[in-house]
Amino acid sequence: MAIIAPSLLSADFLHLEKECKMLNESKADWFHLDVMDGRFVPNISFGPMMVEFFRKATTKICDVHLMIVEPEKYAADFKKAGADILTVHIETCQHLHRNIQQIKSLGMQAGVAINPHTPVSDLTDILEDIDVVCMMSVNPGFGGQTFIPHTLTKIKLLREMIDERSLKVKIEIDGGVTLANAKSIIEAGADVLVAGSTVFKSTDPKGTIATLKSF
Questions:
Q1: Is 204 noted as a catalytic residue in this protein?
Q2: Which of 33, 46, 115, 126, CA to CA, is 20 to 30 A from 135?
Q3: Which of 29, 63, 174, 191 is catalytic?
Q4: What are the pLDDT digits (tens) for 105-132?
Q5: Domain of 132?
Q6: pTM attached to this predicted model
Q7: Closest by alpha carbon to 115, among 145, 76, 95?
Q8: How many domains is the chain partitioned into structurally?
Q9: Chain CA centroid to CA 19, Å
Q10: Could you tell me if 20 and 56 are in contact, meaning their C-beta atoms sit under 8 angstroms apart?
């Protein structure tokens, strides 16, 4: 059964308390929190202060996805804000192993995100040190984009890499997840589904989450 991690980037920011209450009452497992800096991606979202508010609003796992350059400068701030999982992009980390060591030393689970153009083979030497691979199935920066079909091939390749080494790394898929493609994504080997627009633009968000959870 997949872990469902609704992306709060697609929530109604005028009514965040209501949106958090809905997620708390739903079958969602994680809160997925997208941090964007306007440099690595062409958008700006929020920082540690907002993560702190989300942390106060839920007992569920806060899964913080840093789409930023120089993430090492802010890792401690996000730990203090309440992040349970901190994910950095392989494309922004010159010394990725050092970034992972830092995150682990702060007491968080460590994730590595890869963009659509980044091959899964780039993860070979880091897989044993991390807890989550966040595979982008759209180009990062905006919600509501269409799932890139080639991602299914990448999921299968990564699943093989993980299983061959008997690792417990979770495969998280972020971008364009819908009720129509969720089953095929899970069958390819994904463990975690990030869903933004699919959940928050739904007329029945809790029902949509329950359906995603049932695949």
A1: no
A2: 46
A3: 174
A4: 999 999 999 999 999 999 999 999 999 9
A5: 3-214
A6: 0.97
A7: 145
A8: 1
A9: 18
A10: no
Q: Which band of pLDDT confidence, cut at 50, 70 and 90, is reported for residue 144?
A: confident
Residue the block writes with tokens 């992009």: 89
* 191 in active site: no
d(CA 24, CA 163): 32
Q: What pLDDT, on the 0 to 100 scale, is given for residue 145?
A: 82
Tokens of 22: 């809905």
Count H helices and E strands in the chain, helices first.
8, 8
Single-letter amino acid, residue 95:
H
- Residues 93 and 100: their CA atoms lie apart, in Å, by 10
Q: Which of 34, 63, 131, 191 is catalytic?
A: 34
Number of neighbouring beta carbons within 10 Å of residue 6: 28
Query: In terms of DSSP H, where are the helices of the chain?
Result: 16-25, 48-57, 75-81, 96-105, 151-164, 182-188, 197-200, 205-214
- Cα–Cα distance for residue pair 29/6, rounded to 1 Å: 8
Can you give the CATH number for the domain in which 62 is found?
Answer: 3.20.20.70
Hey, is 24 helix, strand or coil?
helix
Answer for the pair 154, 189: CB distance below 8 angstroms, yes or no.
no
